[in-house]
From TrEMBL:
The organism of origin for this protein: Echeneis naucrates
GO biological process: protein insertion into mitochondrial inner membrane from matrix
Superkingdom, natural source: Eukaryota
Protein name: M-AAA protease-interacting protein 1, mitochondrial-like
A GO CC term assigned to this protein in UniProt: mitochondrial inner membrane
Any one Gene Ontology molecular-function term assigned to this protein's record: ribosome binding
Length: 269
């Protein structure tokens, strides 16, 4: 198996809090994805890989309802909050990582006709975060079956069950809560049997009402102004999701979530 990887690997891989992953030959029907034993550890949606075509739809595999469309207001699901606090930028993600990932994304579009830099794709992965986080917050893990791998589904359920009810509910994210999205690792995997897979690891910055230690990935880049109306102070939290799609000719165009990690899980450690 050969893997073409962006030199900018995810900053959290190999660091406590986010699990590392290994990939290799030997799994039937998909590349081998094994979760290593570590302290911490990102859905499937469908997109036609036809660059230049407007109005593409993105849907979760196995879901009958569309979670993304080009309609105005489609990215504001029911329950989105309004009146966001003032947020100032105090830092920036690694620019070298961003440039390297963008170059690899361009090459993926050039060679595989798959646009992973489009606004449509960006909106799709945001809605993946919204969908998965809300399902986890309700404890309805069975609704993620088919969206996450079996190993990841077990991992997510174990981590969520270590939280109390209030902490689990704070996992929920709305589209309005999301502040920034940053690709941390982009790679193409070539299996020995000729199959090809695209992996994209993405970090999300979003507002949360969780009560706990500050997320260093959030505080070093954004600062939230304190509320003056006495409402609960919101914090910047992060989550890392890894998405996978098979690039083999004739394969399903579905994307799947192969890794999930939320800063909120630190509360249970």
């Amino acid at each position: 198996m050969h893997r073409i990887v962006g030199l900018a690997a995810c900053r959290d891989l190999g660091r406590p809090g986010v699990c590392s992953w290994t990939r290799g030959p030997g799994c039937s029907g998909r590349p081998a994805v094994h979760l290593r034993q570590c302290a911490g550890p990102a859905r499937p949606f469908t997109a036609e890989p036809r660059p230049g075509v407007c109005g593409r739809k993105v849907v979760f595999a196995g879901q009958k309802h569309r979670l993304l469309s080009s309609r105005a207001g489609a990215d504001k699901p029911t329950g989105s909050s309004g009146g966001q606090p003032d947020i100032s930028v105090v830092g920036s993600p690694d620019p070298v990582t961003w440039i390297r990932c963008k170059i690899i994304m361009y090459l993926i579009q050039l060679y595989f006709k798959l646009d992973v830099s489009s606004e449509e794709f960006d909106r799709g992965i945001k809605q993946a975060l919204v969908h998965v986080s809300n399902v986890m917050s309700r404890g309805r893990y069975h609704e993620l079956w088919g969206l996450l791998s079996h190993e990841m589904l077990e991992y997510v359920e174990t981590r969520c069950q270590s939280l109390n009810r209030a902490q689990r509910q704070q996992l929920a994210v709305t589209m309005d809560d999301i502040i920034f999205v940053f690709p941390e690792e982009v790679s193409v995997v070539f299996e020995e049997d000729g199959r090809r897979f695209c992996f994209i690891s993405t970090r999300f910055w979003f507002l949360s009402t969780y009560q706990g230690p500050d997320d260093p990935e959030g505080t070093q880049i954004f600062k939230v102004a304190p509320h003056e109306d006495g409402s609960p102070q919101r914090k910047i939290a992060t989550a890392v999701y890894e998405f996978r799609r098979e690039l083999t000719k004739g394969a399903s165009p579905d994307w799947k979530v192969t890794a999930v990690w939320h800063w909120h899980w630190k509360l249970a450690e």
